[in-house]
Amino acid sequence: MSQPPTIGTPRRVLCIDDSEVILDRMKTTLEPHGYEVVTTSHTSAAARWLPGCGLVIIDFHMPGFDGAAVVASLRDALSKDEKSRMPFFYLYTSTSATTEYVKLGFDGVFTRKGDESALVPQVDAAFRRLRMRELAKKQS
Amino acid sequence: MPASRSNAPPPITTQRRPRAFLSVGVKLAFATVAVLVLVTALVVLELTTRERESILSSKSAAATAIADLLVEALVPPLDFHDKDEIQVELDTLRVNHDLLFAGVWMADDPSPVAALHGPDATASYPRPTSDAPALRLLGDRLELVRPVVRPDGKRLGTMMMALSLAKENAAFASTRRRIFWLSLLVVGGTATILLSIARRQIVAPLDRMMFAAMRIEKGDRDVRVEVVANDEFGRLGAVFNDMSAAIVEREKRLGDATRRLRELFDHMQQAIVVFGESGIVEKVASAQASIVFGQTSGRHVKDLLYPGASPAEVEVQALLDWLPLAFASTPDDWPEIASLAPRSVTLRNPRTAQMQWLSLELEPIRQDKRVVRMMLLATDQTALHRLEQTVRTQEQEHARQMERMRKLLAGGGQVFVSFLTAADERLARCLAIVAAVPPSPRGEDESKTIVELFHLVHTVRGEATAFGLGDVAVEACLVEDALDALQSRSRSGRVGRLVEVRRAIVEGLEKTRRKLAEAKAMFVSASPVGSDILDQITVRRSDIERLQQLVGERPDELGVVTMRLASRPFSDTVATLAEKVPNWAEGYGKRAALEIVGGGVLVGPRLGRVLPGVVTHLVRNAVAHGIEPIGERRDLGKADTGIVRIVCSQGSAGEGAGATDPCPVRVVVEDDGHGLDADALEARARDIGKAVADAAALAFTDGLSTAACGHELAGRGVGLSAVRSALASVGYRVDVDSRPGEGARFVIRVASS
After folding, report:
1. What is the pLDDT of residues B489-507, one digit of tens each?
2. Chain B, window 605-624: residues with a beta carbon less than 8 angstroms from a chain A beta carbon
3. Residues ≥6 apart with Cβ < 8 Å to B153
4. pLDDT (tens digit, 9 = 90+) per residue, B660-687?
5. Which of B3, B164, B603, B610 could link B21 by a cystine bridge, Cβ 3.0 to 4.6 Å?
6. B489 touching chain A per CB within 8 A
7. Residue of B123, B118, B116 whose CA lies nearest to B97
8. CA-CA distance, B162 to B59, in Å (whole number)?
């Protein structure tokens, strides 16, 4: 498990997955690309890792877990400022994602779970979006 | 032909306002006619003036001769004052039809001594003011005055004569008319000749050149104008032909250059397309584009880079967010915007169906600083990327192998071999189940099959994880995902049919099996005895079990060593629990999940015998009593799904001191439910006459249960006390720590001697 996060590190990713193996893969894939990765397999404890993260990637395929409830509870744990800023993404196995996860409260979908080479461009894209949103805010 | 054409190239000089078209021939004719008219007018004026002068001078000469003769004839009668004779002399003039008046005045007499009026005469003529000889030309008449003088010089009187010029004037007018008409004829003829010459020599060649220029403008190659004239137009035509040839030549060179540039682009293996603000591809600039992207024209750049992707996918979202920013960018802020563009993309080649790795560059095409189009340059770097990946994978693989071997050495090869066998059997069972799925599902049965498959795959995954077999675990995890997606679909009311995903699941299972076989092969190849290792380890494991039975529990070194050999990883104890917990919870109308930490920790055989029952009991207890029903949890602000967590860790040296277990462990079973109900426990204790000391301790009291009714899972009142005694029999103890509303925590550790 990683060290508890400190505030103000923008390139930090929180990965929540029920599989430690998947989490370990995500960590070893992303870290060489300059991302700090915080992982947890415990949804109940995930909220305390949230502050300071740039984005959250959630994958829970355990029977009985409801993605919408996880996102809702994590969002509630955020400060007002972070609530509007921090995106939540669902990690999806298929190469073709559906928009149903957006309806569940996710900001978007990461696809091709298990394909490590696909993860980095998607995290890159998510951080680019964050930066673009900041730019748009600055301009307006 | 209008003077200015809307698509005419901009003139080099300042552009004037366009005027109505007027042919150069017409202009020339106008100018010629104007000059001719002017010249003719001058000539006519000059000629008529001269004609009139000559007519008048001859008339004057005749009149002077008559007058002189008359004056001579008048001398004698005037000298004698013979009025009649004077009248006779005057009457001789009557034959002259032009005569208007003739009169003779005596010296100093104001009234004429004799006068003769012509037939047309109307006015009377006064005595001339001067006697001096004079000839006056008036518009319609000629007046002659002569003094009558005797030869000795004596002045006798004055004679005046007026002659009509009507005939001369008429003749003159007729002459002038003739000259005018002749001149007009000359002017008309000249203008006609000039116009026809101008038309043939100037306008026609100019028209030919203009039409030729228009054809060149329209892209007609090899346009020539016929050069026949030996004048400036001939030269102009020749120059025009040269120019046309030069343009054709230049266009050809430009075309060649463009083709070479395109070939260069193609040679660079770059796919280049140009798209507009709408994102639609407008132009394909290199042949590579169709190789990389397939059909490109008219498609959105998003569909080119992420074919078939949903708008919810993060890369698609990032690109669609970026496009408006890029098109609104200025040259100053472009570097920052460019840094936010997608750098690479992985997509399937539409022709070969191979995955290709493309590095991307996006360059703006500006007009007046405004971005009008965007150029996308995609370079196929699949080979390079594969090489990099291979190197990286090899490094990672090496690290993983080391890690695996380390774990195997630490955990005991026998467990690994049994895992390999069991996992392979489980996967084979899964494949058999999937193969037997009927084409048309029958409600409940289908859902049960999915759950069974899920549990089997989940066990494989959990065990593979424990052995650090990441490849196997990932593949199993993907199969799990597919099954869970299917299950959640049937939960949400829609029919999830196993048949629909059968192929994907079979592929996933077979991939998992392959990875498992690879792990086995790796394990065998790493062992110094080759495939014998599988037999040796299997044999040794059964031997060890037997040995342990024979040796029994002995405090000496033999006992400790045997016990250590017979140790099993904790995950063996709890492997099946994780899949059972959600089902148990469902039976209570609750939701719960099990989290296991420390599956790889080794548990000795003594504790290993009681631990599965103990842990199972504590977990069931937590599900039955600890976790609240969903509604209650919602009211308390907790997540719907309750968590039961088992954490196994190596016991500290202090805990192990003096204990019989050579490898002491510490197991914590905790939940996030409502904790132990202290009041209920106390009340029950009083009912059955037990002493009330500590609520927590009461929980382990024999025969004490707070459950309202006996349930299959827990609540028979013997559970926790049985747990305590079972653990005590192997030198372990259990303590409970409960916080109301936050959950209960059972800690199993070595009982200090």
Report:
1. 666 665 567 777 888 889 9
2. none
3. none
4. 566 788 999 999 888 877 777 777 666 6
5. B3
6. no
7. B118
8. 12
